[in-house]
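I have been asked to look over a protein record a colleague put together. Thanks in advance; the entry in question is below.
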Amino acid sequence: MNRPAEDKQQALDEPTAEERDRVQVVFGEALRKLRKSQDLTLEKLAERAELHTNYVGSVERGERNISLFNIWRLALALNLSPAELMQELPTHRLREPGRS
């Protein structure tokens, strides 16, 4: 089986980092809203997703740039598709590429 290439972190310029931070916050707020709408505690969601409670809490607070695999795990734990979990994310960039 082919293995995906290793993800190498590269420094982001300030506007891109701000954009990333905003997307993380929007995702975290949506995750918390969906969790609460299902009357799930943070602990129960983490258990269902097989993730640590502190990790899920930090995602909800917008502190983590969550992986695709963990988005998938959280979506399954909420009985949603990953697309449903991410539907509140912005559909366009906040700035034009190449512009500051």
